[in-house]
Amino acid sequence: MIEISQALKIIKRETKPLGLESVRLDKSVGRILAEDIFADSDMPPFDRSQMDGYAMKAKDTRTAPVDLRLVGESAAGRGWHNKLKDSETIRIMTGARVPDGADSIQKIELTSESGDVVTIDEATTKGKYIVRRGAEIKIGKRLFQTGELIDERMIASLAAFGYPNVKVSAAPRVSILGTGSEIVPVDEQPGDDQIRNSNSVMLKAMCEQVGATANVLPQSGDDLRKLKRVISKAVGPKSKIPNPKSQILIITGGVSVGKYDLTKAVLSELGAEIYFQKVRLRPGKPAVFARLNDTLIFGLPGNPVSAAVTFYLFVRNAILLMQNATNTKLRSGFAVLASDAKAAKERDTYLPASLESDPSGKLIASPLRWHGSSDFVGFARANILVALKRGQIIPAGDVVPILFL
Ligand code: AMP
Ligand code: MG
Predict the structure, then answer these.
(1) pTM greater than 0.90
(2) Index of the ligand 1 atom closest to the CA of residue 303
(3) Where are the domains of the chain?
(4) For a Cys staple, 64 with which of 123, 139, 159, 289, CB 3.0–4.6 Å?
């Protein structure tokens, strides 16, 4: 049995970064940047009005109400490219260029227009309702860095600064195999003694969240020959130029000590190198990590919550390492425990929990009331894992480390 930290070291040692590719911006969320992103212009690129109203010199409004002479209009996309003189004003719209000579905007609600005269009801001040050129970002500024995961809030910046395509790390190809003779595909009605294969599609979704492409392999039950065939096919032959069909193969189930737990036996028979097969972790002790040809293989426990936790700790890490991501581990933090929590005696323990803030501003971690590591319905409500060291018994009210899911 090895420590989690040791397992992570081995995974890091065996995981090599993949190449780059260019993807369309609208397909880039969840991918890892493979280039630094720079502003190709000031933002805003010109002095910009924040209001619909009138542009003027603030000094002309000191004795408001005052009448100013209307000499033009600046609309968004169609600016007024002259110089505003004393006692003059132009109509201006939100997002439009503020002309030279003007130093303030008065909003339309505090004005009235009649013929070529505009009455300004209240005095303005210099700079009022103007966002100066470059106030948000200066040209040349580095906005995002290689290794960052692209999220949906970054897309507007990439679009605004001229990245219709963006360089990202190549997507790891992951194949997912559910073992177990009791498992039927999700679109089939389970018969007696059967359940649906919920793990494979769950893991596919988890892989895709972190930039991988994932495909679910045909089920092979607990049948040694079938398992061998499906695994060999997913791995592909050994070749001089490492370009396996799947860079990662995730197998769930069949990793513990039951009569029909065949995963490790199959991997050995196929000649895989097994790096670890027991981790001081709950849930997830029987997690396996191996290599066959150029494919990394994770054997995760069949229990859905154990499969999820070991995915988050190990497989997710490998997928992000392959993409040269800067942050390859779950984000960590601290919260106050809502109820007593207990770790396994000999294994570091990750308790699925939900995180809320209370009215005093404290973050409260409530470990789920659940039925153990088969309870995927309970787990669906978890948004953190409470991280406990082996043997710890922590009373409600204490602060504990957490990992964000
Ligand atoms: P195993 O790790 O094969 O001993 O399986 C442990 C438990 O997880 C058993 O109750 C299995 O029926 C269940 N299980 C295994 N594979 C899956 C799967 N793909 N989807 C849902 N449950 C599974
Ligand atoms: Mg099984």
Answers:
(1) yes
(2) 8
(3) 4-19+171-322, 21-41+145-169, 48-131, 332-404
(4) 123
